[in-house]
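Archive entry. Fields below.
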Amino acid sequence: MALLRLFLLFVLGFWGSVAVAADPLPSWNEGPAKQAVVDFVSQTTTAGGKDFVPAAERVAVFDNDGTLWCEKPLYVQLAFAIDRVKDLAGEHPEWKTEQPFRAVLENDQKSLLDAGEKGLLQLVMASHAGLSTEEFEQVVVDWLATARHPRFGRPYTECVYQPMLELLGHLQAYGYKTYIVSGGGVEFMRPWTQAVYGIPPEQVVGSTIKTVFELRDGMPTLMRLPEIDFIDDKEGKPVAIHKFIGRRPIAAFGNSDGDLQMLQWTAAGKGPRFCLLVHHTDAEHEWAYDRDSHVGRLDKALTEAEANHWTVVDMQRDWEQVFASGSK
Amino acid sequence: MALLRLFLLFVLGFWGSVAVAADPLPSWNEGPAKQAVVDFVSQTTTAGGKDFVPAAERVAVFDNDGTLWCEKPLYVQLAFAIDRVKDLAGEHPEWKTEQPFRAVLENDQKSLLDAGEKGLLQLVMASHAGLSTEEFEQVVVDWLATARHPRFGRPYTECVYQPMLELLGHLQAYGYKTYIVSGGGVEFMRPWTQAVYGIPPEQVVGSTIKTVFELRDGMPTLMRLPEIDFIDDKEGKPVAIHKFIGRRPIAAFGNSDGDLQMLQWTAAGKGPRFCLLVHHTDAEHEWAYDRDSHVGRLDKALTEAEANHWTVVDMQRDWEQVFASGSK
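PREDICTED_STRUCTURE:
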């Protein structure tokens, strides 16, 4: 009888969890975007269905900046680089005259934006080098613990989108392997993606600077060089997906033209596919920007999404809540 | 009562499987090498033990050539490249005079070996380019289906070491994530590592050639360029481990000086560590080579293994059987 009770408890407990999980996306308003996500996951994971995908092939790739967390008013990594350039300026007198460093030291946001994505990445790389990989990780962890988003006043890791956390969790619960494929630096993301997104370091693909193996006082060390190894943006994203993952994703999530080729590469595979763009339309609770934005421009990809019937999330319409904390 | 019977069946069934799996390494002779492997896995996976390692951190890295499969008389990928250079020679008249292509076309094995590892990799890269990633995968699959090892007369994928297959399976059964970290080309390995080693494509790290994303007749395509991107050997191995995996392994398996830095990097981490070298000592059933070998030289790493008490497998002494098929 005790066994029977245990058995029933187990079965009912399981049934109970399923009932509780009936709405896997509570922060999404009912509508075509939410429905498309739920349908795709259901169709690709229902054994015997015509669109069933074996677990090993359930690969979903996510851009990070503007897709999983807030990228305004500046990329978070740029805010980090700015703080770090200011910290290191004493050791680099040449930065007083060299762009984009000068812009940082003079708080000249316009020149900083004029430097373009490549200039910004150079800034990031230069301000990130000269440390061992372990030292750099500690610098990132320390900065994230104290830095605050200028508008929301809370840690950047709390400026992640609640609906996207639910989407990640839903995919993970159904056996999807979720990857980040970001233009951001891989070593800027890995220290916190497991805790925040449930994505382990080995599933984070991003831009890299060169590192070199050396024995430092006899201790094997990887030193970070001030040299860009790879920029994981635009055409680089499918290249990196192929190099790091070696499988074509069946689902891709982005928010800007930098994600277009990743979505094209995903969409062009055989079998069921899912492509989604987050369209920032909620100036009240976050930001509203698209075709003319400096950061996170969404122009060509938006046009292509419409032509290909990719899912476009209208943040204001489709999300009941933007962040885990805070109103809406 | 039916429930009780079900319950007992379940418990006894489980107990039964454990009993059957009592020797996870049946092709290993009893001795210090086998014992070291069994002890390490047990110590790192026994909850509450002082050397327990959480599942997420159980990362084990394996060299491929000479560690998991036979690398004599030539690296398998070199045999593939030779066949492919011969196939493509009609389109490349310049190869008649350029080394190392000339050596291939004239079956001049000495000049081929003199070209060194870098020359050989160049040969491999040049003979592997000009195709899309999907076309190249098909070429690899087709070649492996028909090519035969010159001494053993069977497919190369059957020239894998049975004791190492058991070791991989043992680690995998205990929650280890097993990676290949090879000097070989990543796209030469990925098509078959799941079937042969139980290692999925995303856990294969290796040398790469550059690829470029383009729309070919409107179809998103990754084209392989005749340009080396990264050579995953020696100092490159810890660099690649950090870049691709982002975690320091706790166990590393190699067989040559090309694996030394990978073992050093692994050994230098905190907590329990395991480093193993396969020493080829069985000329009767495979090959015997070490400090003076052209292919798979094991010299500095052997010295360092002795100094650091890493586990060294003496193939003749420690392995009861070398290959899955064939005698011993």
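CURATOR_NOTE: Confidence is low (pLDDT under 50) at residues 11-20 of chain B.
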